[in-house]
Amino acid sequence: MDILRSSVGLLAGLLFGFGLALSGMMDPARVLGFLDVAGAWDPSLAFVLAGAVGVSALGYALVSRMRKPVLAQRFEIPHNRPITAGLIGGAALFGIGWGLVGLCPGPALAGLILGLPQVIGFVAAMLVGMLLHRFTAASSRR
């Protein structure tokens, strides 16, 4: 079962990476063009976003009709709804980072295969940020 789950995960990841490449989400210039609503706005990624929302909505609709997942014991659906300062701060940092360099974590990880220095630098900075968060979160719980 673990090999099957890993294989399905690998296939899903490859499909996701292919979709990111096909849609242009790994191209920082295209992403920045989409975010530049006051300048030379490129609306093409709005279709990518609409497609992603549609697929997600379909997935949630299917989950609501299923008793349990095919390859797991239970569904892992987040139920935490409160809007906290940490959530707002994290969303703001995510948006600022995306707007500055035109990359977000998923496309950046997929883009590592291209070997672009900008992508490698972004992923390195992201990993350092994750480690800093882990360290500061762990020390604040003590």
Automatic annotation (TrEMBL):
TM stretches of this protein: 43-63, 83-103, 109-132
Domain of life: Bacteria
InterPro entries (alphabetical): DUF6691
Xref: Pfam families: DUF6691
Alphabetic keyword roster: Membrane, Transmembrane, Transmembrane helix
Name used for this protein in its record: DUF6691 family protein
